[in-house]
Automatic annotation (TrEMBL):
Protein name per UniProt: Tripartite tricarboxylate transporter TctA
Entry superkingdom: Bacteria
InterPro entries, A to Z: DUF112_TM
PANTHER family: TRICARBOXYLIC TRANSPORT PROTEIN
Transmembrane spans: 20-49, 61-82, 109-131, 138-161, 167-184, 204-224, 311-333, 354-377, 389-422, 466-486
Lineage: Bacteria, Bacillati, Actinomycetota, Actinomycetes, Streptosporangiales
Keywords for this protein: Membrane, Transmembrane, Transmembrane helix
Domain DUF112 as annotated: residue spans: 20-437
């Protein structure tokens, strides 16, 4: 009851007029940006991060939460209407949602997606309320070896799951770790990778890195492949669901969070895996197998519910352990650090008003998302008709303004362009962006925890496995690394005769 009592206090913060205003602005901006093709929640949060510098931390993170969920909803809108996912978690929604739209049932597909986001978000946030304080209490007793093991797990998991190969995931991670090394050594004060530049002595700001890799890299990639064609939006109509649709969707809405929340809480690549698993599950359980591939509404309802619940799981891990499991969480972690706040086990003790106000705002954001976006679906469809050359020119402008606002130095714009070119090269050669961002965020902290663990053990490597929790995590890491090899081993044949 203590957690739910704290949640009631959080509603006292989240229901103030200014908090409601920031939540509504976040939902609207997130949806508007998420609707645009190729711009997911991570880029939306990264682009709007500098805008919030004048806000108090609570208002800023309430707005970020609205942007996060709004962008996820917007991504499913463009996925359903134009078969162009606004972000990776909405890819599965296109498999059944777009056939529904082309057959004149786009209204029902949008409604199933919107209510799925609402249901999954509500259930996922309830699980967050119930589990987060317990996880934080347990994590208070973690030492340097435990935190380093968790970060190594995040590095290994994110490089193993994402991208076309593990080698490319590892290469992306190494790029991020190298960028994270730029600046002064925290313990010795020695300059690293600064090339004698005093401007680089403080390191490269994480916001500049995030905006460069996501926004600039994506804009350059799109510009290199731009075709002078514009897609016509499909008429949406008024979203609604009949009784037959409700009978087919209510179970997928409830099953989605059971798949989405656990996957969101672990470093497994975000909502891509749970949405696909939800799709496969609903297809196997469906009583209408002949409709799959031609517009089965369960294939929209379940995955969208799972995607929204995975977002709650992602926030839970970030708040309790300071561990970003998705690109959005990595950018939000950078935002916390900009305010001098370090997410982790002590956050619930040191910043209870902010944490519980943020969690309470998730419930409010869900209601606003459903109330605002169902009537506005036709408007979002019209946004899709903006020519891409104008769209991405605007993105480059806002990215440059945002990066300059971070430190007010021209060098930040140069760094932004260089990192943007790095992001372009990563897309060119198939390197996933998320491992690089997580390397920049967690790399310095992992180095610090590694040094602490070695200092405690007088330089002995046994200090890294000095706790049962650390040993357990390294066993999990070993299984992740060896699993592809174990799967290739031939099974023993049974003797017949």
């Amino acid at each position: 009851m203590d957690a739910f009592g704290s949640l009631l206090d959080g509603f006292g913060t989240a229901l103030t007029p200014m908090s409601l205003l920031w939540a509504a602005i976040g939902v609207l901006l997130g949806t508007a940006i998420g609707v645009l093709p190729g711009i997911g929640p991570a880029m939306a949060v990264a682009l709007l991060l500098p805008v919030t510098y004048g806000l108090d931390p609570t208002g800023a993170f309430i707005m970020f939460a609205g942007i996060y969920y709004g962008a996820m909803f917007g991504g499913s809108t463009t996925s359903i209407l134009l078969n162009t996912p606004g972000e990776s978690a909405a890819v599965v929604a296109a498999m059944e949602g777009h056939p529904m739209a082309t057959s004149g049932r786009g209204a029902q597909a949008l409604a199933a997606a919107a209510i799925g986001h609402f249901t999954g978000g509500m259930i996922g946030t309830l699980l967050l309320v119930a589990l987060a304080p317990t996880i934080a209490d347990l994590a208070v007793d973690f030492g340097a070896p435990d935190f380093f093991a968790i970060m190594v797990l995040a590095f290994i998991a994110v490089t193993s799951v994402l991208g076309a190969s593990r080698i490319r995931g590892l290469a992306s991670l190494l790029i991020g770790l190298a960028i994270g090394l730029v600046g002064l050594d925290q313990m010795t004060g020695q300059q690293r990778l600064t090339f004698g530049s005093l401007q680089l002595a403080d390191g490269i700001d994480v916001v500049v890195v995030a905006v460069g890799l996501f926004a600039i890299g994506e804009a350059l990639w799109v510009a290199a492949h731009l075709r002078r064609t514009t897609a016509e939006a499909i008429p949406v109509g008024r979203p609604w669901l009949g009784r037959a649709d409700l009978r087919r969707t209510w179970k997928p809405w409830l099953r989605g969070p059971l798949i989405g929340f656990p996957f969101g809480a672990v470093p497994a690549g975000g909502a891509e895996i749970p949405t696909f698993l939800s799709y496969v599950t609903e297809k196997r359980l469906s009583k209408h197998p002949d409709e799959w591939g031609r517009g089965a509404i369960e294939g929209v309802a379940g995955p969208e519910s799972a995607a929204s619940a995975s977002a709650a799981g992602t926030l839970g891990t970030m708040l309790t352990l300071g561990l970003p499991t998705t690109a959005v969480a990595a950018v939000m972690l950078a935002a916390f650090q900009q305010y001098g706040i370090q997410p982790g086990p002590l956050l619930f003790q040191h910043e209870p008003d902010l944490v519980w106000g943020l969690i309470a705002s998730l419930f409010i954001g869900m209601v606003l998302l459903l109330a605002l976006n169902l009537p506005l679906a036709p408007l979002w469809a019209r946004l899709l008709r903006i020519p891409r050359q104008y769209l991405y020119a605007g993105i480059l402008f806002f990215a440059a303004v945002g990066a300059y606002a971070v430190g007010g130095e021209v060098i930040d714009l140069v760094i932004l362009l260089v990192i943007g070119l790095v992001g372009f090269g990563m897309r060119r050669y198939g390197l996933p962006v998320l491992p690089a961002v997580i390397g920049v965020i967690l790399g310095p902290n992992a180095e610090q925890q590694l040094r602490r663990a070695l200092q405690i053990s007088d330089g002995s490597l046994s200090g890294l496995v000095s706790t049962p929790f650390a040993v357990t995590v390294y066993v999990i890491i070993l299984l992740i690394v060896l699993w592809p090899l174990l799967r290739r081993l031939p099974l023993p044949r049974r003797r017949t005769g």
